[in-house]
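We emphasize that the prediction below concerns an isolated chain of 293 residues; any contacts that depend on oligomerization or on bound cofactors are therefore not represented. The input was used exactly as deposited, without trimming of termini.
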Amino acid sequence: MSLQTDKLDSDKTRIDQALLAGLPDCDARPQRLHRAMHHSVCAGGKRIRPLLLLACSELYTAIANPLHAAVAIEYLHTYTLIHDDLPAVDNSDLRRGRATCHMAFDEATAILAGDALLTQAFKILSHEYSGQPELACALIRDLATAGDSMRLIGGQMTDIESEGQILAAETLNFIHRNKTAALLTASITMGLEFWQPSRQQRKLAQELGQEIGMAFQIIDDILDSTADTQQMGKPAGLDSSANKFTYVSLYGVDEARKRADAHSQNALEAAHAIGGSNELLLEIVKKISKRSY
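Result of the prediction step, given as a token string:
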């Protein structure tokens, strides 16, 4: 096992512990809501976004503990998953190998659990970095911008509106550069906020986030088309059953693989160019690009 793999495993353990510690106790009133939050946050997952944030914060000397920001972005990500799974959106009954929040509890509780996790993300950023207001404002700005109606939520809305349609590449790219890549980009830019990046490094961070986001989404589309439910941790073929247009629909599996590989290579080049102690960052990019497909 490589040093980078050991570090990733160690960081993931730290993230999981911090995610649990940042939640209200399951027995705190209202118990059903807090248990639903725990159910979704503690369901596991690869923790790609918080791991990216930590790796990017460690490229150079960090001015504060980035773990709180890593927790915040994973809370926001989990909120999006809870809401994506709802009957009105993707209508999925499985997430990360276990019942989705609305299946384990009920639809109203799932909506409120997602709302609470979204709020908790910004509460953590404002509280934990209150002694460094410039840093706190930068982190809040990056996360809020990624999650707003022009980016993540806008991509989701366009995805819903496009169900059952044959899409042009430009529309499909718009959906996933916002729905998927925006939050991955925020993981990277929030990590950079913990030191003083140059204008060129900020530009490279945006490029890295977009490229890694597109690679991630295309690979996800391929897996949805070729993998089984056990491999996916969620129902395989969900996009097809929802009549969604994907990169496999547009290009076919072989061409989609080529495009995923090209985006992965571009992401590696951007990660190299940012510089610093980037071995861990490069390892994460490689792991994303080598998911089984």
